[in-house]
Amino acid sequence: DLGYERAVVLDLRRLGGREGYDRELADLALSADIEIVFGGGVHEPDLPELRAKGAVGALLDPYTPVLRDIIRSQANVQEERLLPALERRDVRTGAGPAPDKSAH
Q1: Could you tell me if 26 and 54 are in contact, meaning their C-beta atoms sit under 8 angstroms apart?
Q2: Residue 92, class by beta-carbon neighbours within 10 Å (0-12 exposed, 13-18 middle, 19+ buried)?
Q3: DSSP 3-state assignment of 12?
Q4: pLDDT digits (tens, 9 = 90+) for 15-26
Q5: What are φ and ψ of residue 36, in 5° steps?
Q6: What is the maximal distance between C-alpha atoms in the chain?
Q7: Is 37 helix (H, G, I), strand (E, B) or coil?
């Protein structure tokens, strides 16, 4: 007993996948003596089955395939992006760049 009344079990392997949720993992998670919200590969048609197994909620996957594709496409970008240069500001007023002290 971890002292929680409700937990979220999220199967990251199935998140955004097209093969559906892992029924064995769901059965194992839902056998716990706490309320479980289950996610990872869950689609709307799975809700009645998860409800019947005892889940109190589910995290649905309607958009995660799109997000996964975006993440993968960003990972394929080879160019390094530099962070913008910091600009010194007068901290007393916050108005513009700090005065150039080398001019004196």
Answers
A1: no
A2: exposed
A3: coil
A4: 877 889 999 999
A5: -120, 130
A6: 79
A7: strand
